[in-house]
Amino acid sequence: MNLEQPVLPINIPVNSQWLSGTGAGSWFAIAIELKQYRIKRFSPEGKLECDRLFTVDNDSFDINTNYQFTYLSHCKECTIIQNKKTYKFHTNEY
Length: 94
What we know:
Blueprint: E1 17-21, E2 24-33, E3 36-42, E4 48-56, E5 68-70, E6 77-82, E7 85-90
Antiparallel strand pairs: 1-2, 2-3, 3-4, 4-7, 5-6, 6-7
């Protein structure tokens, strides 16, 4: 059973997206930082679980166009779908 989206905690970015999982779920936020992307993952209650810089596998990703976090997304790799295209974000911060 997937965990339903909780109320967005006030301490996390308003553009965060909820990614539900079986019995769990996380909030994800992305921001551009220099030539990389800072992705933060938060617990359902708003606790920061990870905050790392990522690179994307395809430069056509546009942070200003609608996108959706999807599986597999965690503290080392994140996946985003935008315009029916899948983008993989990877970090070396581990």
